């Protein structure tokens, strides 16, 4: 049921007819058709965009134009949008700003230490800055390590699951083109997406005759600097020879560890997905792959960037760790950050054995 204010506002529209009781009380509000150029035949278009590109007396060929509301209901339309959408959002924003300022003043007034003070929370810490003459004390919010680890884990699980699922569906689509000549591609059409399987990429390698000519052209030193040999291809006795293989440390990586029970659950879920894929319609496979590809390449970009930010924070915690050591971060039952180093992990394993 509409309230009296809403009824009065609706009654101002020219295409509204009020049905009243004998006592004069309004019983019903009837909306009548209204003249609107958006419903004329030459102005059909996407109603979500309120635009059209059809040629007419007022619109040239292949030009987009906005649909227009008739002048006598524009003010009414603007009033409804302002009251129902804009005004509540502005009120919510003003309430949040006022609440933030109230809490900021509370932390400032509660800190008597001129050097500043840190209030500890569950996921966040609030730091009140030093008292300085003529300047207001600052209040900053810092995420606790537990909050950073939990957020990184959640984002990583979501992204890794999407990447793995896209790879599964991609392999199924590639299997359809197994009999296609390597110099040809094809397109599979779904309900929402089209997936194009490209022709096989060219692989260019230098032949033994080419290597012999390069050795003669470059000389021993340049040839040996530019030629790359995988140490795994060397015989076992040469791989252990320090004069043959040089070992150095590269970049660190951040990985999320799971319990055995979680890994079993994930393996069962993957088996169920693959079993369902075997009986799924090709169009469904194509559309699923298209949705995941769209998310990973477009909509998920802020999430990927946020995961990278959190990863760099976690890596900064291990900045002083020797390059030949690793560690594991976890949150204790008390909510504090715990660090388990590689040597400690090995000692615990030996003690358990």
Report, as a whole number of angstroms, the end-to-end distance: 73 Å
As for the number of domains, it is: 4
The helix/strand order is HEEEEHEEEHEEHHHHHHEEH
> Which of globular, elongated, flat, extended, rod-shaped describes the shape?
extended
Question: What are the segments in which pLDDT stays under 50 over at least 5 consecutive residues?
Answer: 37-48
The portion of residues forming beta strands comes to 5-15%
The profile of the biggest β sheet is: 3 strands, antiparallel
**Structural class determined from secondary elements:** alpha+beta
Number of strands: 11
- Radius of gyration using CA atoms only: 33 Å
* Count, helices: 10
Helical content band: 40-55%
Order of strands, main sheet, comes to 5-6-7
For the residues shown, what is the average pLDDT? Answer: 77
Structure description:
The protein is α+β, with helices and mostly antiparallel strands and 353 residues long. It is built from ten helices and eleven strands. It folds into four domains: 1-34, no CATH class; 36-68, no CATH class; 70-143, no CATH class; 148-247 and 256-317, no CATH class. It has helices at 4-11, 71-110, 145-176, 208-218, 220-226, 236-239, 260-278, 282-299, 301-317, 342-352; strands spanning 16-20, 26-31, 51-52, 65-66, 117-120, 124-128, 139-143, 186-189, 194-197, 327-331, 337-341. The chain has a three-stranded antiparallel β-sheet with strand order 5-6-7. Strands 1-2 form a two-stranded antiparallel ribbon. The protein has a two-stranded antiparallel ribbon with strand order 3-4. The longest helix is centred in the N-terminal third of the chain and has 40 residues, at 71-110.
